[in-house]
Task: inverse folding
């Protein structure tokens, strides 16, 4: 295939959907929410809001769509010696948002389903960029930085509020919370995103992580879960170079 033909038919990243009949979910964009659990905001040195009135606006960043990992094998990335895990609820949009600002009450109708994922972070690069007041894209938006589980249709997961979210590394619990601890819930985040972007079917939203983020090493095995319904297992492989 020549370069012109290759450019005309780009590979579209896909995530598996629960149930053989559902096939795959083509990924359009990956939005991420920063500091959406108060305990994580505090562990990163930020001030957590004491009430909804003090929340301000959410922190958003993005990852490239082809950063997703669906087989659980994550090569240790180049340029870092401090790769961190952040376990997160992942929201998959199955419908386009109408033009204009999306009402909070209508936001849930866009959701196809949910997964559990890891927002992998080159913490040393992020910290260095923050210290200089620079963007920290290199700390977040790199190859293989978004492992994600099979997606479960929203109706099969039920209410999110009290579901537990956990991460174990090599069999040891690192992160644990419940989804009612989100500072901004799913409809609120979709509403806020709609003020900035045109939300479309195929978008994924990583909803933020609880406290307990820490370093990963080659050979480490991870087991991320939301309740008993969503599970992501895998390991950190040696660097590809």
Result:
């Amino acid at each position: 295939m020549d370069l012109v033909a290759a450019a005309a038919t780009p590979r579209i990243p896909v995530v598996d959907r629960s149930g053989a009949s559902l096939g795959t979910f083509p990924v359009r964009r990956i939005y991420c929410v920063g500091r959406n659990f108060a305990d994580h905001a505090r562990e990163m040195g930020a001030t957590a809001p004491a009430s909804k009135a003090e929340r301000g606006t959410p922190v958003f960043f993005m990852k490239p769509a082809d950063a997703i990992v669906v087989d659980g094998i994550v090569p240790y990335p180049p340029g870092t010696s401090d790769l961190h895990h952040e376990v997160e609820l992942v929201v998959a949009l199955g419908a386009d948002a109408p033009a204009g600002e999306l009402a909070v009450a209508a936001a849930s109708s866009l959701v196809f389903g949910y997964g559990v994922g890891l927002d992998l972070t080159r913490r040393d690069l992020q910290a260095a960029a923050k210290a200089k007041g620079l963007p920290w894209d290199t700390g977040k938006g790199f190859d293989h930085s978004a492992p994600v589980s099979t997606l479960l249709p929203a109706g099969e997961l039920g209410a999110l509020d009290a579901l537990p979210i956990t991460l174990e590394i090599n069999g040891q619990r690192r992160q644990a919370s419940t989804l009612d601890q989100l500072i901004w819930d799913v409809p609120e985040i979709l509403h806020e995103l709609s003020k900035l972007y045109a939300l479309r079917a195929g978008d994924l939203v990583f909803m933020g992580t609880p406290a307990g983020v820490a370093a990963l090493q080659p050979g480490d095995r991870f087991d991320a879960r939301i309740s008993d319904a969503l599970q992501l297992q895998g390991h950190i492989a040696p660097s590809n170079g």
